[in-house]
Amino acid sequence: MDVFLGEWANLLIRWMHLVVGIGWIGTSFYFMALDYSLNKLGQKQGVLGTAWQVHGGGFYFVEKYTVAPPQLPETLHWFKWEAYLTWVSGFGLLIVQYYIHARSYLIDPSVLPLTPWQAIGISLGSILAGWAIYEGLCRSPIGQNTTILAICFFALIMGAAVFYTHVFSARGAFLHVGALTGSIMATNVFAVIIPNQKKMIAQMIQGKTPDPYYGMVGKQRSTHNNYLTLPVLVMMVSPHYPFLSAHPHAWLVVALILIAGASIRHYLNRVDAGDDWKNYGWTAPVAVGALMIAIFVTAPRSSGGGAAVSDAEVLAVTQKHCVMCHAAKPTHEGFTEAPKNITLDNIASLRQYAAQIYVQAVQTNAMPLGNETGMTQEERDALGRWVNAQK
């Protein structure tokens, strides 16, 4: 029953994460597109630009003020809870999936033998440290130079990727790069963008002219969030695609995803701005090139040559490493039924799911979870030779 309720908790939190995340991403994309589409010619004093828009059978007229309107309106519509709840639900998933089941999903003894509490402590401490470094960079003189700041932030994420791949399991490492980046994005909203807006409102209430500095800083952080969105989305779904992380160059894949995602986002932003293709066309080949390199880097390796493997030998391997989960009645504490209803306790089932076995246990080393049973490379190669012999 505990496992059953845990699965429901996982599903409901994940559903919430998707819903509020879509809301957050949607507002980010919309307001960036709105900013870039503003007509800035012939505007009245104090107005940066205007835009006529049509949607759902209605017409809308939007004005953006250079700093703030002359008078504070009675009602302001804030866009903050989507960001807050995305982080809260994401952290809830981290707890339910990776902290409670740290030995299965977060720890790999072959990478670094950790206790669950050690792994959780490293997770929390590293996320906090990553945010502190980013915040320090933004508040330092480096934060005044967009290019240098971008390079430093890229280096920060790369450093985190290398660190995580030497501490956590493959899927745990990749997921944590996304968790760190997503936490920085949410904190930008919670600790910078919204407080700065409130400071401007407080100045207006006091009859003062709002300081444009607060708006400029908020816009900077909002732009960071916009460019990070696409890479973070890939990292958050990466546990479903173990080929991204289960190899020695996972940190390089992180770099390529950042380059591709940010390039695609820049391309879309400049399209919204109506720029000449000559000014942003370079982003398309950069994004495609990064993705092609990522495909090459993650290409499966050969399982190697060697002696033929008998049915009895492969059954011995799966009995030792697979059937604790993939059986009619699993003995693993985390499952009450076989994952995806796949049982691997007989030769007929092994032949039926040979392709999935090859991907999960030979090509990517994603299974067993966290390599709890200590499956060796020799056993993986033997399993691969048996699968290849079935073709």
Automatic annotation (TrEMBL):
All copies of the Urate oxidase N-terminal domain together span: 5-294
Q: Which domain of life is it from?
A: Bacteria
Q: What are this entry's molecular-function GO terms?
A: electron transfer activity; heme binding
Q: Where are the transmembrane segments?
A: 12-34, 84-102, 114-134, 146-167, 173-194, 226-244, 250-268, 280-299
Q: Which SUPFAM superfamilies match?
A: Cytochrome c
Which Pfam families does the annotation name?
Urate_ox_N
Key word Amino-acid biosynthesis present in the record?
no
What's in the keyword line of the UniProt record?
Answer: Membrane, Transmembrane, Transmembrane helix
Q: What is this protein called?
A: Cysteine desulfurase
Provenance organism? Pseudolabrys taiwanensis
